Amino acid sequence: RRLEDSLGVTLFNRNHKKISLTMAGQRLLADVTHAFEQLSHSVSSIQQLAKSNYVTLSASTAFNNYWIMPRLAAFQRFHPQIDLRLQSSDREPDIETENINLAIRRGSGHWPGCDSSLIADEIICPVASPRTMAAAIDLCNLPNLLHQRLIHLEEPIRERPSWKDWFANFDINAPAPQGGLRLNDYALVLQAAMAGEGFAFGWRHLTDPLVEQGLLADRKDWSWATGKGFYIVWSKTQPLSHEVTLVKNWILNETGHRVLLHT
Question: 219, 189, 188: which is closest to 204 by C-alpha?
Answer without folding.
Answer: 219
